[in-house]
């Protein structure tokens, strides 16, 4: 299967469009970095280091990429600057490959999980509810039966917002009043999902980070309760991060991975920012697969993250 075998032309165009600001930012900096140079030397590498760091790839990941390129320069002795793009593309793709278990097909679910339970975590304002709505839409388009659970009972707005998405996508939602016990909402959601033969359950949770201990306790209580109904639930803990916040997203990832076991990441709002490089750094630093990326307003603009296409869109 070729790189784009599973990837429609329309999706690739959306991805190119969604990453346009980041690409433009990286390219302008790159062309300045190699201006007047014919081969990749120490000065070009220093400039490249600066390009990557200021593109929100993060210091540690940048140094890793530079080291890999240095090794190639060492090996190939003479590398022309016109080859730098291709090499950057190859090295970043290789780095992403180490941290992402193989790319998944479109909104498929692992066999044998009945229902497949996704617990969604993340601070307020990162696009968590929107991501849940778009996930529900895409799973439904893939022929799956979806149930949503509004376990962010801390804010009335969160419950209402999720309800709006449930109506829009036309999937059932389980909710209680604001201030209810989140674990009890999760319990009811799984019971209802099991009774109705749902394929996938998506549970929203509260995004309060200022008190990590409370957050930890709440999330582990929700997990315990879900386990009673669906052994092994949740199958996935999805952390939603706002890509446009750059380094701030790193900080949130750090806090949440301490508070609970995160198994997958979704990076949203990449279309409105030049900070798309953050996807590379976060994937590398946290060793957690980036599973979804948000590259626009439309329902289809939540895409499965495919590292090959992503790097291709950034560096070609």
What are the salient characteristics of this protein?
12 helices, disordered N terminus, single chain, Rossmann fold, 8-stranded mixed beta sheet, alpha/beta
Radius of gyration over C-alpha positions, nearest whole angstrom: 21 Å
Q: How many distinct folded domains? A: 2
Strand content: 5-15%
Spatial ordering of strands, largest sheet:
3-2-4-1-5-6-7-8
From the spread of the alpha carbons, the general shape counts as elongated
CATH architecture tag of the largest domain: 3-Layer(aba) Sandwich
Structure annotation, total helices: 12
Distance linking N and C termini: 21 Å
- Largest sheet entry: 8 strands, mixed
SS class: alpha/beta
The fourth-level CATH homologous superfamily of the largest domain is P-loop containing nucleotide triphosphate hydrolases
Run of helices and strands? HHHHHEHEHEHEHEHEHEEH
> What is the fold named in CATH at topology level of the largest domain?
Rossmann fold
Report on the architecture of this protein.
The chain is an alpha/beta fold and 316 residues long. The protein has 2 domains: 9-99, Four Helix Bundle (Hemerythrin (Met), subunit A) (Up-down Bundle), CATH 1.20.120; 116-309, P-loop containing nucleotide triphosphate hydrolases (Rossmann fold). Helices cover 52% and strands 13% of the residues. It has helices at 9-18, 20-33, 42-54, 59-76, 84-99, 128-141, 156-169, 182-196, 212-229, 247-259, 278-286, 307-315; strands at 116-121, 146-151, 173-174, 200-205, 236-242, 264-268, 290-294, 302-304. It has an 8-stranded mixed beta sheet with strand order 3-2-4-1-5-6-7-8, sandwiched between helices. Strand 2 (146-151), helix 7 (156-169) and strand 3 form a beta-alpha-beta unit. The longest helix has 18 residues, at 59-76. The model is unreliable at 1-6 (pLDDT under 50).
């Amino acid at each position: 299967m070729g790189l784009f075998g599973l990837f429609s032309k329309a999706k690739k165009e959306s991805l190119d469009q969604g990453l346009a600001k980041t690409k433009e930012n990286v390219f302008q900096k790159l062309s300045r970095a190699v201006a007047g140079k014919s081969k990749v030397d120490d000065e070009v590498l220093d400039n490249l280091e600066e390009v990557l760091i200021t593109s929100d790839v993060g210091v540690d990941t940048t140094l890793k990429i530079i080291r890999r390129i240095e090794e190639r320069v060492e090996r190939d002795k003479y590398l022309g600057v016109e080859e730098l793009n291709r090499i950057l593309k190859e090295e970043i793709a290789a780095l992403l490959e180490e941290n992402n278990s193989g790319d998944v097909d479109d909104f498929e679910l692992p066999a044998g999980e009945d229902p497949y339970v996704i617990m969604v975590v993340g601070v307020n304002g990162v696009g968590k509810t929107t991501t849940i709505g778009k996930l529900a839409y895409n799973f439904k388009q893939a022929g799956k039966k979806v149930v949503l659970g509004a376990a962010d009972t801390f804010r009335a707005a969160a419950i209402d917002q999720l309800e709006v998405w449930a109506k829009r996508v036309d999937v059932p939602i389980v909710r209680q009043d604001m201030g209810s016990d989140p674990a009890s909402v999760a319990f009811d959601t799984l019971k209802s999902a099991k009774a109705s033969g749902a394929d996938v359950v998506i549970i929203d949770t509260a995004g309060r980070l200022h008190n990590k201990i409370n957050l930890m306790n709440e999330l582990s209580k929700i997990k315990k309760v879900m386990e009673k109904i669906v052994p092994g639930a949740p199958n996935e803990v999805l952390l939603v991060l706002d890509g446009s916040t750059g380094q701030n997203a790193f900080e949130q990832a750090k806090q949440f991975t301490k508070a609970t076991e995160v198994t997958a990441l979704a990076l949203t709002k990449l279309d409105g920012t030049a900070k798309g490089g953050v996807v590379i750094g976060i994937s590398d630093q946290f060793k957690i697969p980036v599973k979804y990326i948000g590259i626009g307003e439309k329902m289809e603009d939540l895409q499965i993250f495919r590292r090959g296409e992503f790097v291709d869109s950034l560096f070609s």
